Amino acid sequence: MPLLVTDYSWTQTDSTVCLSVPLKGARVGKVDIMSTDEYLKVHYPPYLFEAFLFEPVDDDRSTAKVGGGVAVFSLLKRTNKVWEHLMMTINNTEKKEVRERALLNYQEKLSAQSTSKTKKENAEKKYALQKMMKLEEEKRDSIQKTKDEERERTTAELAAWQLRQKENAEQEEQLELHRHRDSQSKRGAMTEKRGNGCSAVRLDQRGDSEANSKRTPEDLPAPRLAGNIQVTFTPRLFPTALRESRVPEEEEWLKKQAEARRAVNADVDELEDLKEEERNPDWLKDKGDKCFVTGDHLGAVNAYSLAIRLNRRIPALYSNRAACHLKLKNLHKAIEDSSKALDLLTPPVAANAAARARANVRRGSAFCQLQLYAEGLQDYQAALQIDPHNQALQADTQRIRDIIQGTAATLETQ
């Protein structure tokens, strides 16, 4: 049963009643207040304050403030007169009826406030929507106006250009007519002059023919001597013509290839238990290639790795091992081996173009499987620059672009 609060205080004027109810240390959030025209309740467990007001008050204009350990109410009277008491004296049955009536009125008041708040929010949303639609309409009108002005300006420029073209064509036609008249007049003058001097020309031609008929075979020059001209070409290892090649880069590549074939790593002497053929990197590379073809990718990795221990300067070993790592889903190792192969495939020349393209594709494929599509696209584009007519490579590159664009569109919608 709640404890009734009796140590409240109140004062009044002809129009207002000021009521102060102590909260006895209760927090503001724990205080429940219900107020109507004839009933006031302040509940903060285990305490309860009820006031069955002596006269009706205007609840809509009354105020309540809670803080500092006290609840202060300012109740505006409906009639300007002095009350004899704060509360009227009624029995329990009448109190029950007042409570029920007050609760019903309070619920109706809350419902009306909620409805009013909802209407107000809807009105604000409707106003905001109308404002936004108006702004969008103004924006569309502005864009359409700009388009119309641009279209009119372009139409005017096109009409002016067509007029200039027509004027230029007329001027060209007049100039051509003048040239034709000048040429006709010159042709007539030349015809007249040629008619006057034709007999002299015929006489000169007759004299030349008579002089040629008097020549003897001894007067003719001797025939030229026949002979052969020896043409030699510089022997080259590259299929391109010398004028189309980059000689310094090709010589550097050949030098690196020769050094790679001569290179033997220091740890070869430690592999004393290897057979003679197992000490040959080329033999190990062929063995790795055969294992890869038969599907023994782990065996191929072992063969390539042993060959790399023997000679770390052959790019094909790293590139082929990268292909094996791709099959085994060792994607980071595939990227590492492809990068090492590309480092060794320098300088870029025609002889290593195909190998560079394969290494780029293998590294790009590993990047894409790791969902690093931007890095993968760079490698596929590099391979496509080397082999621009490869249709499969073109299709793969476009597919990666579509994936990147689809991911970006998904992020934007999110």
From TrEMBL:
<dbReference type="InterPro" id="IPR052004">
    <property type="entry name" value="Dynein_assembly_factor_4"/>
</dbReference>
<dbReference type="InterPro" id="IPR019734">
    <property type="entry name" value="TPR_rpt"/>
</dbReference>
<keyword id="KW-0677">Repeat</keyword>
<dbReference type="InterPro" id="IPR011990">
    <property type="entry name" value="TPR-like_helical_dom_sf"/>
</dbReference>
<keyword id="KW-0966">Cell projection</keyword>
<dbReference type="GO" id="GO:0005634">
    <property type="term" value="C:nucleus"/>
</dbReference>
<keyword id="KW-0963">Cytoplasm</keyword>
<keyword id="KW-0802">TPR repeat</keyword>
<dbReference type="GO" id="GO:0007399">
    <property type="term" value="P:nervous system development"/>
</dbReference>
<keyword id="KW-0539">Nucleus</keyword>
<dbReference type="InterPro" id="IPR007052">
    <property type="entry name" value="CS_dom"/>
</dbReference>
<dbReference type="GO" id="GO:0007368">
    <property type="term" value="P:determination of left/right symmetry"/>
</dbReference>
<protein>
    <recommendedName>
        <fullName>Dynein axonemal assembly factor 4</fullName>
    </recommendedName>
</protein>
<feature type="compositionally biased region" description="Basic and acidic residues">
    <location>
        <begin position="167"/>
        <end position="195"/>
    </location>
</feature>
<dbReference type="InterPro" id="IPR037894">
    <property type="entry name" value="CS_DYX1C1"/>
</dbReference>
<keyword id="KW-0524">Neurogenesis</keyword>
<dbReference type="GO" id="GO:0036159">
    <property type="term" value="P:inner dynein arm assembly"/>
</dbReference>
<dbReference type="GO" id="GO:0043005">
    <property type="term" value="C:neuron projection"/>
</dbReference>
<dbReference type="GO" id="GO:0030331">
    <property type="term" value="F:nuclear estrogen receptor binding"/>
</dbReference>
<dbReference type="GO" id="GO:0003351">
    <property type="term" value="P:epithelial cilium movement involved in extracellular fluid movement"/>
</dbReference>
<feature type="region of interest" description="Disordered">
    <location>
        <begin position="132"/>
        <end position="154"/>
    </location>
</feature>
<dbReference type="Pfam" id="PF04969">
    <property type="entry name" value="CS"/>
</dbReference>
<feature type="repeat" description="TPR">
    <location>
        <begin position="357"/>
        <end position="390"/>
    </location>
</feature>
<feature type="region of interest" description="Disordered">
    <location>
        <begin position="167"/>
        <end position="223"/>
    </location>
</feature>
<feature type="compositionally biased region" description="Basic and acidic residues">
    <location>
        <begin position="203"/>
        <end position="218"/>
    </location>
</feature>
<dbReference type="GO" id="GO:0036158">
    <property type="term" value="P:outer dynein arm assembly"/>
</dbReference>
<dbReference type="InterPro" id="IPR008978">
    <property type="entry name" value="HSP20-like_chaperone"/>
</dbReference>
<dbReference type="GO" id="GO:0007507">
    <property type="term" value="P:heart development"/>
</dbReference>
<dbReference type="GO" id="GO:0120293">
    <property type="term" value="C:dynein axonemal particle"/>
</dbReference>
<dbReference type="GO" id="GO:0005576">
    <property type="term" value="C:extracellular region"/>
</dbReference>
<feature type="domain" description="CS">
    <location>
        <begin position="3"/>
        <end position="87"/>
    </location>
</feature>
